[in-house]
Amino acid sequence: MKGVAAVLMMLFAIASSPAAELTPFVEDGELGVLVTGMAFPEKLNADLKSGLTNRILLRLTLEQAGRRAQRAAEIAIRYDLWDERFTILTRLDGAVVDSITRTSVQEVRAFIDRIRLTRLFKAADLPASDEMTMNAEVLLNPIDRERMETIRKWVAENSARPPLDPASALAANDTSLANALFNKIFEQYASGSDLAAIWQQRLSTRPFTLDGLNHARR
């Protein structure tokens, strides 16, 4: 029990890190978010060069007047021991939305220390002057890699539905593919499975309005 309590205290300390920030923005008419300053474990740099895929999973929840919409993002990082380079894939609700390569751990850390997720919600479908908040639950390698592949197949088999429509998603008791995916992951996480790492962080934006955000263009 003492060991469990110690782990919970460690997780609480990590989750409460004041340096981490979640910052919303509007770009090209769509709401995105910038995730910075997360307190990743010290051994992450070594893990990145292991040749195994490291994954950062984020459940993003947009809340406004008791209504909510969710998206699930995944950052998958794989080091090719032969080519000596990193491939970083970004997925949104299971679909690949970006793929880049980097040549050093420092470049990878610069990327994940400043995760920029775009095209989460269409701004035109959201109330421009009403206050809303966005929350993020972040997991690093939350379950063993074999189960992760099983979940990936499950997502692929169940993602034939149209992309999440924020206008209809911002409704009470919305059940999306993103929510189902993360529920499955968190069930595994809470069940005491063979975990690749024990690390999580929760972040929240301050209340904001679309009118108050800086509308940036590429």
Topology at a glance:
Blueprint: H1 2-15, E1 21-27, E2 30-36, H2 44-48, E3 54-64, E4 67-80, E5 85-92, E6 95-102, H3 105-112, E7 114-122, E8 133-140, H4 145-157, H5 166-169, H6 177-190, E9 200-204, E10 215-216
Parallel strand pairs: 1-10
Antiparallel strand pairs: 1-2, 2-7, 3-4, 3-8, 4-5, 5-6, 8-9
- Measured between the Cα atoms of the first and last residue, the distance is 52 Å
The ordered string of helix (H) and strand (E) elements is HEEHEEEEHEEHHHEE
- Rg from C-alpha positions? 17 Å
Overall geometry comes to globular
**Weakly predicted, low-confidence segments:** 1-17, 160-169, 171-175, 192-197
Structural class: alpha+beta
Strand order across the biggest sheet? 6-5-4-3-8-9
The total of beta strands comes to 10
- State the domain count: 1
SS field, number of helical segments: 6
Strand fraction band?
A: 35-45%
Mean pLDDT: 76
Instruction: State the major sheet.
Output: 6 strands, antiparallel
- Classify the helix fraction into a percent range: 25-40%
